[in-house]
Structures
1.
Amino acid sequence: MGELPLYGGVIVDVRAEAVNRVFHYAIPQEIAQDIKIGHRVLVPFGHRKIEGYVVELTDQLDFDLSKVRDILELLDPEPIILPSLVELAHWMESQYVGLLSEALQYMLPPGFRYGKERVGVKTQQLVTLLEKNPKLRANATAQRRVVEVLQSQSPMLATELISKAKANYGCLQTLDRQGIVSLETVSLERSITWDKVDDPPLDLTYEQSKACDSILEEIEQKRRPILIHGVTGSGKTEIYLRIIEPIINQGKQVIVLVPEIALTSQIVNRFGARFGHRISVLHSGLSDGERFDQWWKIYHHEVDVVIGARS
């Protein structure tokens, strides 16, 4: 479709079989260039305004266009569901005879699912000292304390600075208006840590080396699933690590599933030692905020390896 789309097919975020179908809305000109499959949108629905997800785009409809209402707003700067996952949701709907709106829930990041409190990127104000020796009024004691703290460490998060300087946010805003400091909104990751362990690559036995070569060849040919069989302690994890390294060196990503949460930490420690912070962790023991941040990194290709339990 070369021209900008005129209409969007939307699945509304309502759990009811009566509305388990695509509703079509006109796309206002101001968002026509930005809207994509997977975008979260605000639409009129009866006498309400509700959220929905764009699942198709078209430039023509075969019914009365006078009844078509406009999409009200794009709710996110980029699609929150990848087009491939929208296709997967369609397949799940037909395969399991369920609701498409429900299938789409499984494609959403934590904190965006039906009935949950919304979670997004966590932000904070970062304060940077611009003028090292500013002229301040004699009675501006709080401002002076802020500058003195920043003279020893700049930039600094606003919450930390307010605590150290015994000041308030209004004081920072005043210094910002005067050009003495700058206030900048930055995103903060609810980071997940793991133990730093020394885990150098092990020397492979002849059988392990042969297995790695054979598996990589199978992966290259995309032939079939592969089972690695070995007793506990036989070196299977080292084989996984050796297989993954050339794959991520090709710019691809890898998913590693462990059978239970209890095993996640020791796997994460080994993978973290080998691949550094280019790994992500997902399991039900994380908060919605932590899981959202991990999803955000995966979505934006900031990680190479995703490790998760089946829960």
2.
Amino acid sequence: MKEIENIIHIEIWDPLHMYCAWCKKVKYTYNEASRTACTFLTMDLYYLPGSAPCRSVIMTAKALGLQLNKKLLNLMAGEQMKPEFLKLNPQHTIPTLVDGDFSIWESRAIMVYLVEKYGKTDSLFPKCPKKRAIINQRLYFDMGTLYKSFADYYYPQIFSKAPADPEMHKKIETAFDFLNTFLEGQQYAAGDTLTVADIALLATVSTFEVAGFDFSKYPNVAKWYANAKTVTPGFDENWQGCLEFKKFFN
């Protein structure tokens, strides 16, 4: 019965749901923890492996011990504009997570949702208001400054074959200067342990690496990055995604 539940979302198939309800009464090995675990496979993640935001969600799920049903979305073919996907996400962006009848997009929102709903502890996103505020600041910095600087500089070159813009490159350097300051005397991005801030930043910084950006002159970033690659669950898959993205530069 447990094997069946691990494959199928039982609540969408009434006969199986009834069978599992009976098993709960007669089988002492069944518990709500195993029942909850079987719903993890019902979470669909629409993604592309090369996308840094998508990779940050995947690493967060890995850190939580969650399994995602990953669904490739072919943006070049316009699959994000299909009516069925627009019902899930009217902004037609990735990553998009579907958990039962609930859908959410924007990678950092997804990461926080997963931690708050499925985290056994709050270590990745502590409940302490001050600690959480610092983590949120780092997440917003990643979204609005660091990752944005990557997109503003590299995307025109990749997708429009535009020449490199020196002014946009300066914004990358400014962003790394900020990050280097944040990490002064710090092993982690926001506190003394790994949090979702580290995971989001790791997805971005590793993408900078395959793009050929040299951040060795930012010693605090380089030191943090070396550690984050080692301690973050799912980094190997993240790196494979980075290598996929690197093909755009070939």
